[in-house]
Specification:
Layout (H helix, E strand, L loop, with lengths): L1 H7 L16 E2 L3 H16 L3 H4 L15 H6 L2 E6 L9 E6 L4 E6 L5 H7 L4 E2 L9 E2 H24 L4 E7 L1 H15 L6 E5 L7 H10 L2 E6 L20 E4 L12 E4 L42
Parallel strand pairs: 4-7, 7-8, 8-9, 9-10
Antiparallel strand pairs: 1-11, 2-3, 3-4, 5-6, 10-11
Helix pairs in contact: 6-7
């Protein structure tokens, strides 16, 4: 995601006109907070190479210790994907028998190929709805793995009809997860719940409204994290609603009082209203109830 920021940070001097939206704010119950802290662990697990380049039947692991509840659940990999596409889209589909869940988790930015996907800001028609447009790089990152991943999910859901389907991701992974969830819902998996942590904007207003109307969207931002501020409003991109804005600092325990729920595809009461995207705020991008990308090793390889 550094490439998103450095590519446009100093080139734009105004956000542009906001699209009118509801500015309703609400609080979260303690039970929801517990769920948020659990599902970010699945997003975090997608950064660990043993999971996105593992073996079907293997249990999910996080060597850095940031997915203990996932490990305790005994969740197993049904399908993993990485290094097979130009975009280096990586992640896994897993089955969690403890929580009766099928999970699609998509890794955030790590390789040079990911960064190329991050900065491809032109629109593309994903064919999801009339007048709907998605950010080209994010949609392409989903499209290149769409067929095999969707087939695995179809089979898993059919085999376990009492299980829930979850789509999760952090950073670039959250952007791809947002479009994947929308696509899966439109093609029959209406039950899919999205947990998107630190997602950039992925859609024009028409598509964002369609995804918002689908419901079961949990999109998180954190303080001044610059990534959710991109691509810019002036480029026509808006967010899926609602926004769960984490207002506490980095590396601290998040309480219910630290999460504000904001409605609207554009809402300046949350992350968007904290100023222009700045590299000085990038540390906020890592901390979403925990250090979500802690499994990333040093270096920026072409392929992982």
């Amino acid at each position: 995601m550094y490439s998103i920021i450095t590519g446009v940070l100093f080139a734009v001097t105004a956000i542009g006109s906001a699209i009118p939206s509801s500015l309703r704010t609400r609080d979260i119950p303690a039970g929801e907070l517990t769920q948020f802290k659990f599902w970010v662990q699945y997003a975090a697990a997608a950064y660990c190479e043993v999971n996105y380049a593992g073996q079907a039947g293997s249990e999910l692991k996080c060597a850095v210790g940031n997915c203990p509840q996932v490990e305790a659940s005994g969740a197993t990999i049904l399908y993993d994907f990485s290094n097979s596409t130009l975009t280096d889209t990586s992640g896994f589909v897993a089955r969690d028998d403890t929580n009766k869940a099928i999970i699609l988790s998509i890794r955030g930015s790590y390789s040079v190929r990911n960064w190329i996907s991050d900065v491809e800001f032109p629109y593309t028609d994903p064919g999801l709805c009339e007048g709907c447009e998605a950010e080209f790089g994010f949609w392409n990152s989903w499209d290149v793995v769409r067929e095999p991943v969707t087939q695995i999910i179809h089979e898993a859901v059919a085999a376990h009809p009492d299980y829930e389907l979850f789509v999760v991701g952090h950073s670039l992974g959250a952007a791809v997860a947002t479009l994947a969830a929308a696509d899966l819902r439109i093609h029959g998996h209406l039950e899919a719940t999205l947990y998107a942590f630190a997602a950039p904007r992925v859609a024009n207003l028409a598509l964002a409204k369609v995804i918002t109307a689908q419901g079961k969207n949990y999109r998180f931002t954190h303080t001044k994290d610059p990534v959710p501020k991109l691509p810019l409003l002036s480029m026509g991109y808006v967010h899926v609603s609602p926004e769960y804005w984490i207002t506490s600092g980095n590396n601290v325990t998040v309480t219910t009082a630290d999460v504000k729920v904001l409605d609207g595809e554009v809402n300046f009461d949350g992350n968007t209203g904290t100023g222009f995207p700045s590299l000085s705020d990038f540390d906020d991008h890592h901390w979403y109830f925990e250090k979500a990308d802690a499994c990333i090793p040093p270096g920026t390889p072409w392929r992982v």
